[in-house]
């Protein structure tokens, strides 16, 4: 199912405080935007959103490993300690269960914590607080307790960090009632969705992507306004088309857009949907698109079984089955722990040409996978 395309990977650069080496991309295949207008990196978009929300509401504070003195492991919190002081930008020990629990408790009392996990793989240490303490409290208290907390940090694979640091948690947290799960792609997504998450009265899991932090995207004047906020639960049609629908989130949106450009050369006009939100999922936009194009490809970096693509497929089968002219195609990560070797790692996650092949199969432009195996 999964093919290989070249991916430029640089040498080691930067370390976790825990000592895990990282490979950084020196070039990206996911940049798909015009050069006009003001541009902003995803890193700066997140930083500015945090800054503005902290300035607007004294109840907002940031807590996590290296968020203060070190300016953030990925510099998302750069400058916030100097501006707001150690009472609102709190460095913690390496104890995710501890500071996540403290964050939930403070949210019970009306504060608005933004908890940073250095990677969402480490949220496994705190998952009891995320799910049992945060997600369920509003329901179990009959609406008497709100938990306005944001859990944010990089999610999914980076490069060369092995199976324990490369997992996508979209499907994990997306299955939990009481949570909202957001997945930004562009700088405008990052700014608008993080502001929405901080202002929301319910717990929000905010899944970023490490390899997108340094990517620059155009931002509108509206998005630069301090009052800017994107609606939670609303997808964005990044590219309109009529022949096939491609859904994706986070880094895979860029891959889907690049695949759509390649498909256009073969006469296939693809519509690309940036999900933005996994829970709630914008089923209406997805189904409306499928009813127009009559074909669907879902793309994600997570495992295929019980994944986001499986949920989207179920929604389309339930609501728009009569409109489908071909089976739904799912492009996902391989059903194995992430390999450490670079060549195997590339095979374990979707590449642009995997999306192209899946779209062509759905449009009956290539030999079906089973026949070619």
From TrEMBL:
**Assembly and oligomerization:** Tetramer of 2 alpha and 2 beta subunits.
User: What is catalyzed by this enzyme?
Assistant: N(6)-[(R)-lipoyl]-L-lysyl-[protein] + pyruvate + H(+) = N(6)-[(R)-S(8)-acetyldihydrolipoyl]-L-lysyl-[protein] + CO2
Answer whether the UniProt record assigns the keyword Metal-binding to this protein. Answer: yes
What job does this protein perform? The pyruvate dehydrogenase complex catalyzes the overall conversion of pyruvate to acetyl-CoA and CO2.
Q: Which InterPro entries match?
A: PDHB_mito-type, THDP-binding, Transketo_C/PFOR_II, Transketolase-like_Pyr-bd, Transketolase_C
Q: Which parts of the sequence belong to the Transketolase-like pyrimidine-binding domain? A: 40-215
Q: Where in the cell is it found?
A: Mitochondrion matrix
Instruction: State the needed cofactors, names only.
Output: thiamine diphosphate
GO terms of biological process kind: pyruvate decarboxylation to acetyl-CoA
Q: Which GO terms describe its molecular function?
A: metal ion binding; pyruvate dehydrogenase (acetyl-transferring) activity
The UniProt entry's GO CC annotations, sorted and at most eight, read: mitochondrial matrix; pyruvate dehydrogenase complex
Annotated keywords: Metal-binding, Mitochondrion, Oxidoreductase, Potassium, Pyruvate, Thiamine pyrophosphate, Transit peptide
Q: Pfam families from the entry?
A: Transket_pyr, Transketolase_C
Report what the protein is called: Pyruvate dehydrogenase E1 component subunit beta
- Which EC number(s) does UniProt give? 1.2.4.1
């Amino acid at each position: 199912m999964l093919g290989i395309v070249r991916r430029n990977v640089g040498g080691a650069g930067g370390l976790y405080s825990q000592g895990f080496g990282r490979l950084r991309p020196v070039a990206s295949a996911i940049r798909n935007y015009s050069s006009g207008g003001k541009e902003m990196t995803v890193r700066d978009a997140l930083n500015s959103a945090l800054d503005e929300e902290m300035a607007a509401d004294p109840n907002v504070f940031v807590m996590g490993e290296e968020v203060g003195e070190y300016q953030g492991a990925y510099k998302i919190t750069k400058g916030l300690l100097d501006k707001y002081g150690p009472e609102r930008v709190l460095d913690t020990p390496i104890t995710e269960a501890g500071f996540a629990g403290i964050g939930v408790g403070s949210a019970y009392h009306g504060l608005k914590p933004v908890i940073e996990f250095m990677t969402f793989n480490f949220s496994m240490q705190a998952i009891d607080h995320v799910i049992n303490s945060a997600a369920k409290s509003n329901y179990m208290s009959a609406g008497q307790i709100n938990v306005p907390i944001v859990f944010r940090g990089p999610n999914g694979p980076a490069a060369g960090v092995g199976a324990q640091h490369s997992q996508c948690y979209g499907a994990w947290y997306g299955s939990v009632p009481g949570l909202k799960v957001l997945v930004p792609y562009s700088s405008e997504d990052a700014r608008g969705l993080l502001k929405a998450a901080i202002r929301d009265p319910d717990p929000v899991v905010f899944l970023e992507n490490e390899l997108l932090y340094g990517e620059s995207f155009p931002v509108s004047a509206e998005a630069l306004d301090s009052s800017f906020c994107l609606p939670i639960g609303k997808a964005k049609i990044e590219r309109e088309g009529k022949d096939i629908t491609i859904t994706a989130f986070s880094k895979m949106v860029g891959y889907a857009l690049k695949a759509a450009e390649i498909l256009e050369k073969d006469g296939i006009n693809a519509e690309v949907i940036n999900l933005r939100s996994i829970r709630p999922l914008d089923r209406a936009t997805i189904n409306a698109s499928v009813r127009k194009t009559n074909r669907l490809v879902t793309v994600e970096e997570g495992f295929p079984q019980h994944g986001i693509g499986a949920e989207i497929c179920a929604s389309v089968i339930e609501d728009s089955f009569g409109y489908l002219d071909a089976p739904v195609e799912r492009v996902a990560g391989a059903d194995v722990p992430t390999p450490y070797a670079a060549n195997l790692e590339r095979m374990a996650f979707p590449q642009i040409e995997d999306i192209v092949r899946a779209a062509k199969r759905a449009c009956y432009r290539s030999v079906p996978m089973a026949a070619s195996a």
